[in-house]
Amino acid sequence: MSDLTAVPTPESLRAWLVDCVADHLGRAPAGIATDVPLTTYGLDSVYALSIAAELEDHLDVSLDPTLIWDHPTIDALSAALVAELRSA
Amino acid sequence: MTATVADPLARLGALLDRSPAFDPATLAALDRAERFPADACAALDAFGLPAHYVPVEHGGRLHGFGAVAALLRAVARRDLTVAVAHGKTYLGAVATWIAGDPAAAARLGARIAAGAVVSCALTERAHGSDLLGGELTARPRAGGWTLDGEKWLINNATRAELVTVLARTDPGGGPRGFTLFLLDKARLAPGALTPAPKVPTYGVRGADISGIVLRGAHVGADAVIGPVGHGIEIILKALHLTRTACVAMSLGAGDHALELATAFAAETVVAGRPLADRPEVRRVLADAAAALDLAEAAATVAVRAINGLPRELSVLSAVAKAFVPAQVDDLIARLTDVLGPYGLLGPGFRHGAFGRLERDARIVGIFDGSSLVNRNALIDQFRRLARAWRKGARDDAGLAEVTDPDAPPSAFRPAALSLVAGGNSVLAALPDAARRVRATGPAELAGLVDRLVAATGEVHAEMAAFDLRPHAVPPAAFELAERYELCFAAAAGVQLWLRRPVDAPRLRALLVRALDAMGTR
C-alpha cells in the first residue's frame, strides 16, 4: 500500500537513488552525478535492473524494471517515477 | 484408459521405437560422417511435433510449456543431435509469441505447423554472449529496414526458412538500441543473405551450426518483432523460456546415459558375474538416478513456471539452466569413471552411444547462456531474493500450479514476464512444506528436510550479507549460487513429493544427494 501522506517528490527520490547507486558501487554519494547515465559508473544494463527492483521494494509499488532503461539518469528516472506514481 | 492413443508423448515414444530414421546404428553413422539427421527430422515433422511448438492462441497445440519440454526430452533421450536440430524451431519462434503482433504470430504459427524451420541469430563472431556488443545493423528506409552484418555459431542458420535476428538500430547501442526482426529468407533479394559454412563441433556433430551474412538485406516494416528498440528486453524474456527447453534436452541426455549404463552393467559379465552385481557399480547407478531426480525436480518446476509463476521466471529459469546441465555432465562423468574401464565408452557397446553422448551432452550447458552467465544472472538478484526470503513473499496459487504436474496450466501471459523476480515461491514455502513432511511423512525424511531448511536459511543469510559490486563478482558468489541451486532443486523435490507422497526412499535419496553436494552435515 502506498502511503498517501508520504508521496515521494523528485527530490526525495533523487536522494534515495543517489544513496542506492552509491551503495551498489561502493562509492560516496557525493561522487554520484544525477544527470549522467548510470552506465557512466560501470553499471551494466542488466545490473541496473536490480536497482529498479530495489526502488520497487522501497516504494512498495509495482514497477517495470526496464523503466531504468528508458530513463537512464537519476534525474530522468526520478521525474518519470513521480509522473508514474501520480498517474497510478 | 485410451490415453495411449491420444497422448502425444506415448505416440512419440512409439515413433522413436519403430521409425527406421531413429535406428541407433543409422544415427551413429550420421554422427561419424558429421551429416545432418534429415530423415529423423522429417519423421518428427510427419508426426506433427512442430504444431506442439506453437501456442494454441496462434493456431498450434502448445497449452502448457511442460508438455513441449517432455516431448523434447523424449527426443533427446534417443538422440541429442536430433533434439537440438528439430527443437531449434521452438526456440527460434519464442520472441514472436512474446512480442509479435497477433497476425504475425498466426502467420508464423501456420508456417511452423507446415514444417518451416525457424532459427534465432543472436551471437556474433567477435561478441559471443555479449548481446549489447552486437554489430549487425538495421537502418530504416522507406517502408522498412536494411540489414547488414554477420551472425555466427547459429543452430540451423543454413537450413532455416525463417530467422529471428537481433540487430543494432541505434548506433549508440545500449539496452534500447537493438530491435528484433523475423527474416523470411524467401522474401529477400538474391545475394542479400549468404549462409556461412557449417562449423565442425566437438559434440552434436551432425547439427547445422553455421551462420548468416547479410548485405543490404531489405525487409518490410512488418518484419519487426515488438516495438523498435525493445529487442534486448524481448530476447532476454525469450531466453527465460528457451532455457527450460535446453534443460529438458539435458535431462533427456541424462536419461539416455543412465539407461545405457544400466544396460551395460547388466549385460557385461566380468569374472563370471555381471557388473551390476557389484556394490560399487550399484552405488554409482543409484547416485546417478538420485542426481537425475534432483535435476528433474528443478526442471519440472522451472518449466511449469512459464505458465504458473511468470514473474519469478527470470530466477527459476536461470537456476534450472545453471543446475541441470551441470548435474547431467557430472553424472555422465561418474558413470564414465566406474564403467568406462570395462568398455562403456567403446564402439562395441550400442554403436559407441555412450562415448558420443558424453561429447554431445556438454554442448547443452552453453546453449542460451552458459552456467556462468546464468549464475551471474542469479547473483545480480541476490539482494532482492534475500529480502523476499526474509519477508516470506510468495505466490501460493502459482506455487500450487507449478508443483502439481496434474494441474492444468494457466494461460500463457507474456505481459507478466519480468526481467527481475520479486522472489522465489518454491523456497519461500519450504519451511511450511518441511512442517508438513514432519507432520505426515516418514521419520527418515524429517531430519533431512530440517537440514534443508537450515541450509536454505544460511544461504539467504550469506546472500544478504554479500557485498557485491557490479563487474567484480568474486568466486565465492558463484559457490553461493551453486548452493542456492541445490536448495531450490531439493525444495522443488519436497514440494512435488507432497503432491504425491509415495516412494519416500526416492525423496530421501534426492535430499541426501543435494545435502551432500552442499557439504552440510
In short:
The complex is a heterodimer of chains A (88) and B (521). Chain A contains four helices and no strands. Chain A has 88 residues and is mainly alpha-helical.
What's the arrangement of secondary structure elements?
The complex is a heterodimer of chains A (88) and B (521).
Chain A (H helix, E strand, L loop, with lengths): L9 H16 L19 H15 L7 H4 L3 H14 L1
Helix pairs in contact in A: 1-4
Chain B lengths: L2 H4 L1 H11 L5 H9 L5 H10 L17 H14 L1 H20 L2 H12 L4 E4 L15 E5 L2 E12 L6 E7 L9 E7 L8 E4 L12 E12 L3 E2 L5 H37 L1 E2 L2 E2 L4 H30 L4 H27 L13 H12 L6 H9 L2 H10 L4 H7 L22 H4 L1 H11 L2 H23 L9 H25 L4 H15 L3
Parallel strand pairs in B: 1-4
Antiparallel strand pairs in B: 2-3, 3-7, 4-5, 5-8, 6-7, 9-10
Largest pleated sheet of chain B: 4 strands, mixed
What is the helix tally of chain A? 4
Q: SSE order of chain A, as H and E?
A: HHHH
| N-end to C-end Cα span of chain A | 12 Å
User: What is the CATH C level class of chain A, in words?
Assistant: Mainly Alpha
| C-alpha geometry of chain A | globular
Oligomer: heterodimer
How many H/I helical runs of chain B?
Answer: 19
- What is the number of beta strands of chain B? 10
**Percentage of helical residues of chain B?**
55-70%
CATH topology of the largest domain in chain B: Butyryl-CoA Dehydrogenase, subunit A, domain 3
Strand content of chain A: under 5%
Provide the spatial order of strands within the biggest beta sheet of chain B.
1-4-5-8
Which fold does the CATH topology of chain A refer to?
Non-ribosomal Peptide Synthetase Peptidyl Carrier Protein, Chain A
Low-confidence stretches of chain B: 1-5
